[in-house]
Structure formats: C-alpha cells, structure tokens
Here is the input.
Amino acid sequence: MLVAGGIGFGVYHSKHESSSSAPSAAAAPTSGRYVALGDSYTSSPRTGALVGAPPGCDRSDNNYPRLVAAQLRMAELVDASCSGATTANITGPQQTANGVNPPQLDSLDTNTTLVTLGIGGNDVGFIGLAHDCLTTDPAVSPCKARMASGGRDELAARITATTPKIDRVLTDIQAHAPNARIVVVGYPAALPDGGGCWPFLPLGSADVAYLRAAAAKFNDMLAAQAKAHSAQYADTATPSKGHDMCAKAATKWVEDLVPSSPALSLHPNANGQRAMAGVVAAAAG
Here is the structure.
C-alpha cells in the first residue's frame, strides 16, 4: 500500500515498478490507469525513498505522480519517469548509471485514462547551462554574453528545435493511449524576479533575467503544444513564484546549488513536488 497525501490506494505497476497490494477499504480507489512520463522534475531524486526499477531513474516515493494518484484516487499508477530523460527516451530506451529504463511510451495502452508528461528541459539543457553561468563577479553575465550575441540567441534556438520533438511525443502518446486525458506539466519557476541573490546564487543579474525569460519561453511552448493536441497544461511556474532558489529554506520549492532540504540541486524539493501535484491534479480532474 502506498499512502500519499493522507489517502491510501492500491498501485499495480508495470515493468518499470514491480509491487502491488490491495486497495484500502477505508479509501478505496475509483478507477483509471495513470501513467506518468518525464524527467527528473517528475521522478524527483532524493526527496524521498528510492522506488522502482531501474534504480538509476531515481524515482522518489513522494514525487508528484504518487501524490496526484492519491488525490485522484486512481486504481493504477505506472511511474515511467526517469532522471536525465529527454524526448528521445519517451520512444527509446535510456541507459542510466544503474540499469536501463525501457521506452517510457511502452507503459501506455488503450486502458490508460490519464497521462502526465513532464519533458523537454534536458533537450534544451537548462540544468547544465545553469552551472556554466556561475560567476564570482556579479557585474558579468557569461551565459548571455556567449549565447545571445551576434544576432543569434542560442537558448531560443534550442527551444525552437525542441518544439517538434514535443509535438511528436504528444502525437505518439495519443496513438498509444487514445482514451487518455493528457496533461503536459510545465516547469516551476527556479529563478526569482529581479536580479537574483548573488553571491548566494552566483549568477550575474543579466544572466538571471536571460535564463528566466528563456524558461518562460520554454513553458509557453509547452503550453502551446498542449493546446495544439487538445491536451491540458499544468502551469507550475505561476504558483511557484516567490518559492524559487533565492527564497528561504522553509519557503523555497526549488533547491539551489547546495540543497537545504533533501533534493537534487536545481530541482524541486518535497514541498515543490506537493505544489506541483496540486496543479497537476487540478488540470487532470
């Protein structure tokens, strides 16, 4: 029995996870098969106990798919998400540091009633780029200087290149799970409004603005693709404002370079996963 958000429910896993139990008589599930697809913002490394196979996917037992399944009282949850996943790993296998994750699309079938998709950040390369932007001088912004010069914006180009990949993934999901409600999950706001919080977060103010604008453009693209495929969009960025990496430890939903609560750096913590779950559940309901 998995208990999340105070609600118990039976979970019957695919080859991605192999455990099952009977539903609680006090809080019996309704119906429906929920499949969660995505990257580390979905699998939620280090926020809870490691569950599922392969271990290299770093799925936590308190990630938003489990919280959503509890809130909606789904009869079945299959969490196929995997840390480090790109759009290519939705349709193809993913080699992790500890095992191979099958193509996430393999978890879908005609009995699937809900699919959430949180993918694309690794295609654009946001996490790696954030590390490249670090500076000991708040007056300089190495990323913007390098990536947005000479009339070309490299980040904007990466987002444009990712757009048809999201389009293909959504088309494939609809083909494999024609009876499912699809929710595209946006990425929460990791950076604050304004110039940031150097040296706590060692990014120059122009880079903070540049990366924040790129993240907003990326989320806008995800929302547009969701609309084009008659899917729902879960906007996690708007409610996460003020809970970014510069917020106090008890307030932040996204951890900074040195996490102050259990989570991977630059990723949502347990509070962030709970907040995301609320938005996703509302979009799926």
